[in-house]
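Subject line: Sequence and fold of a protein, written as C-alpha cells
Enclosed: The protein record, placed directly beneath this head.
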Amino acid sequence: MVRLKMKRLINLTLSKREKWLFTFVLTLTFSSIIIGKYQNINLIENGNYTIGYITALTHSKVSDMEYIFQVKGKKHRTTGYSLDKKKRKIGGRFFVIFNKNRPKNSELFVQLPVPDSIQKAPYGGWDKLPIPEYQKYVDDYFEKATHNWFMRFIPPW
C-alpha cells in the first residue's frame, strides 16, 4: 500500500522540461499582469479623453474591435477588447482615454457612448470627461483594475 502511494507520487513529479515550461508560463503570465497594471497606472496619470469611432469588429484572442480617434490633428488607429459585445457597433461614437505622451496606449469604453450634444473633442482632448457620471465610471474602473485585492500584491505599488 505504501509502495503504491510512493509510485503515484513519483509519477506525479515533473520532468526538467515540464518544470522549465511551467516556470516560463508562470513568468510570462506574471509579467503580463505587471505590464497591464503599469499601463493602466500610466493611463490614469497621463490620460486625456477624446471621441473614438469603432471601424471594424474583429474576432481575435486579443481584440474584438478596431477603432480610431484623433488627437492634435493626428488620427490614431488601434484595437481593443470589450466585455459588452452588444454595445459595440461599427460607426459608434464612444469616449476614449489615451496617454498624452503615447496616444497609441488607449482604451475605448463601449459603456460610455458620446451623446449627440457633444459633436467634437477639444484639440488635445479633455482632462476630465464632460459628463460627471462617466468620469466616475472611469475612475471606478481603474481603481478596481489597479487596486483590487490581487493587484495590491503586484508591482508597481
About this structure: The CA atoms of residues 1 and 118 lie 75 Å apart. The chain has one domain: 36-153. Residues 16-46 form the longest helix (31 residues). The first strand starts at residue 47 and ends at 57.
